[in-house]
Amino acid sequence: MRRLSKSAATLGAVALLLGGGTAYALASSTGATIAVCVKHNGGTLYRAKKCAKHDSRLSWSKQGAPGATGATGATGAQGPKGDTGPQGPGATTFAMTLPSGTAFGSIATLPNGMLLEAGCSGGKVDVGVERSGSQVGLQVSGTSSNDGATPAETSYDSTSGLGLNTGPGGTTHTDIDWIVGVPGGTYVRVDIHGTQGSPCSFWGMVIPSS
User: Fold this and answer.
1) What's the pTM?
2) Could you tell me if 123 and 35 lie in one domain?
């Protein structure tokens, strides 16, 4: 019977190990390398710190070298753009003067139809709001301040009648920060500053509701 060469026996041992002896090799090896002895006669595998004379040692890594990095996937499609909301109503700013001695009266019509009023007489400066002739009632909520005093809360709610509300007036300056409207109507925020003098000066901002 023809004897197998040493290299053929080793290859046979590897085939045996890969085909059915993997569990044995893994169980009998630690670390990243698997090492076993191969009997020169028959190719039987066995575990030993040192292989017997004429036997050879066979070792290989448990894990192969990492493969090449795969290609980058295609970029996904961009989703549709969301709807754009309507443009807000925006704020309106103003600045003006009134000669000294000007009685309290309307200086502008607000976006909700109410009247913005101011006065410069009697050594005082004053600002306020009033409903127009066709409106009924008045609702006001916010703060007001005169001559640098701590802002005081302002609350006025009239569902009928003239519904008149004015600022208290100051000898040097006055400020109001109010939300104003008529019952059942739209509301406007007014931030107004007035300075007493000759003339009195006024400036501020009006923010309508949408």
Assistant:
1) 0.57
2) no
Tell me whether residue 152 is in a domain: yes
**144 falls within a domain:** yes
99 and 153 assigned to the same domain: yes
User: Of 41, 61, 81, which closes a domain?
Assistant: 61
- Domain residues for the domain of 49 are 6-61
Cα 35 from Cα 185, distance rounded (Å): 90
53 and 104: one domain? no
**pLDDT tens track for 88-102:** 778 999 999 999 999
Say whether pLDDT at 8 is over 50: no
For residue 16, what pLDDT is reported? 44
